[in-house]
Amino acid sequence: MLGAIVLGFVAGYLGRAFTPGSQVSGCLPTTALGIVGSLVGYFLFTEVLGVGDTETLDLGGLPGAVIGTALVLIVLRTAGRD
After folding, report:
1. What is 30-60 written as a DSSP string?
2. How far apart are CA 5 and CA 27, in angstroms?
3. Residues 57 and 35 sit within 8 Å (Cβ to Cβ)
4. Could you give the angle at the alpha carbon of 73 between the alpha carbons of 3 and 80, nearest 5°?
5. What's the Cα-to-Cα distance from 58 to each of 31, 39, 44, 45, 55, rounded to whole Å?
6. Residues 6+ apart with CB under 8 A from 3
7. Measured between alpha carbons, how far is residue 61 from residues 3, 32, 46, 47 in Å?
8. Which residue from 77, 78, 79 is spatially nearest to 22, judged by alpha carbons?
9. pLDDT at 52
């Protein structure tokens, strides 16, 4: 559980850094965004692309988590423009 929170925070922070103009700020929203992005990245890479480990969610999946977080941020920004 603690590993998922740490991964979520790191993925959220890096995802925000790589996505210009993101509006999410603060420790808790960043962590929540990172956890959601980690799940999106995990699903995208393991289920859709067939890449990665399906047994566990760990720090080895950080690149997928960051990509998932950036995708979630892009969707949130796009949905917020309507």
Report:
1. HHHHHHHHHHHHHIIIIIIS--S-SS---GG
2. 11
3. no
4. 140
5. 15, 11, 15, 14, 10
6. 57, 58, 59
7. 12, 17, 10, 14
8. 77
9. 65
Maximum separation of any 2 CA atoms in the chain, in Å: 39
Q: Please list the pLDDT of the chain residue by residue as tens digits (82 residues).
A: 677 778 888 888 888 888 877 566 778 888 888 888 888 888 887 777 777 665 655 555 778 888 888 888 888 888 876 5
Q: Which letter does DSSP use for residue 26 in this model?
A: S
| Chain position carrying tokens 């956890």 | 35
